[in-house]
Amino acid sequence: MAHGARRTPAPPPRPDLARARDCEHCRGWGTVITRDGDHLLCAVCQPVADVSEPRQQTPSHRHTPA
Prior knowledge:
There is one protein chain. 6% of the residues lie in helices and 9% in strands. By secondary structure, the chain is low in regular secondary structure. It has a two-stranded antiparallel sheet with strand order 1-2. Strand 1 (31-33) and strand 2 (39-41) form a beta hairpin. The longest helix is centred in the first third of the chain and has 4 residues, at 17-20. This is Small CPxCG-related zinc finger protein.
């Protein structure tokens, strides 16, 4: 019996496809699928984010009062 994909509360990770282009481990996808069916970023071509330092977001536009 075929089963559909199971629902997950988190969306799959977003890889950097430019880095994944020539990776033989993930074959250019940037993600790998575990035995449990979870998507993970490829450990070979995708950099690991440093979670100890929060990201600084720059505003895309500035509002100047009139």
